[in-house]
Amino acid sequence: MGEGEADNGPEIDRWHLLLDELCNQSGDYDNARLGSELCRRLGKREDTHFETAVRNLRNWRAGRHIPRQRNFMILSELMNVQRSPALRARWNALYAKARELEDKTGGSTGNGTDDELEKDQEAFEVGPLQPAPPPGLVPPALMANISLRPAKLRGAAFGLLMFLCGIGASELYRAEPWLWFHSGPVYPLIVLRPHVSMAVGESIVIHGERGDCGKLPPDWEYVLTRLPVSRIGDFSDGGIVRRNSNFCKGETPARAVVFTARRTGVEEFLVLGDVMRVTVTDAPL
Predict the structure, then answer these.
(1) What pLDDT was estimated at residue 275?
(2) Domain boundaries of the chain, sorted by first residue
(3) CB neighbours (10 Å) of residue 270?
(4) Spatial separation of the C-alpha atoms in residues 255 and 207, rounded to whole Å
């Protein structure tokens, strides 16, 4: 696709139409290559995952529903929208518009189902923790050694106790993994702010970039490379905080992203995969 083809003319005013046009320009008429690449980047390897990816792509291109944030970011890379600032701006703006329409209609933008491939999409709301599994049976190797003699009974009971303690410890680690690594200060908890209203000169934490579950977040230099350029403000490092993640089953460390308003206006942009809308007004006298 040449850069001249990227703008696609003013007649395309829907995100799914732009996606379909870009797919056609790249020769991806049957979605097979895109479906395979989507599965690879999501770590999905089963045949059923590929079939689901192709079905999702078909639904996205038809406008039945729109992808979740993670799939949208992958599609942005596959469609190479970064090659043209105008194309990237239109791509992001139309997606934000489609997301807003979906929010207003309470779900799908058409008659299709929800995004099936990306069910473990991360969110800032705390997801329900999975219940701890019921105490399992004593391992066969331990059962084989159990005897009616008191000494062996005591040994078996001790082994069973250690086994159950191991289950409990693993559940505690899974629920709050970062507490095992950080017993120092309790960092502040942040929340996602998809719609922000602020005055010129004001600074607000609007997002947070996590690392691996329970591990310290990446440094600011890395996070900065994933942030957009804003015409009404700029981003800065807010230090280490806590945020909720469904993927991590609770709170995990993150690096706060602070937005500082510099001039009045309204702007929508993607911040770490989430669509944000910021409204900046004059500072009160």
Answers:
(1) 87
(2) 3-105, 123-285
(3) 20
(4) 8
255 Cβ neighbours under 8 A, 6+ residues apart = 208, 209, 210, 217, 218, 219, 220, 223, 237, 238, 239, 240, 241
Averaged over 275-279, what is the pLDDT? 91
The stretches of the chain forming alpha helices (DSSP H) are: 15-25, 32-42, 47-62, 69-78, 85-105, 140-145, 150-175, 220-225
User: Could you tell me the sign of the dihedral formed by the alpha carbons of 19, 15, 126, 269, in that order?
Assistant: positive
The residue written with tokens 């970062």 in the block is 178
pTM above 0.70, yes or no: no
CA 239 to chain centroid: 20
Look at 21-25, 196-200, 224-228 and tell me which has the smallest mean pLDDT.
Answer: 224-228
In angstroms, rounded to a whole number, what is the distance separating the alpha carbons of residues 114 and 52?
A: 11
Q: Which two tokens stand for residue 122?
A: 């991360």
Beta-carbon contacts of 264 under 8 Å, excluding residues fewer than 6 positions away, are 200, 232, 280, 281, 282
**CA-based max dimension of the chain:** 85
Contacts of residue 46, defined as CB under 8 A and 6 or more positions apart, other chains included, come to none
The DSSP 8-state label assigned to residue 121 in this structure reads -
Query: In this structure, which long-range contacts are made by residues 39-46, counting pairs with CB atoms below 8 Å and at least 24 apart in sequence?
Result: 39/117, 41/74, 42/70, 42/71, 42/74, 42/117, 42/118, 44/117
Question: What mean pLDDT value characterizes the chain?
Answer: 76
**Strand, coil or helix: 268:** strand
Q: Which two tokens stand for residue 181?
A: 């690594």
Phi (first) and psi of residue 138, to 5 degrees: -65, 135
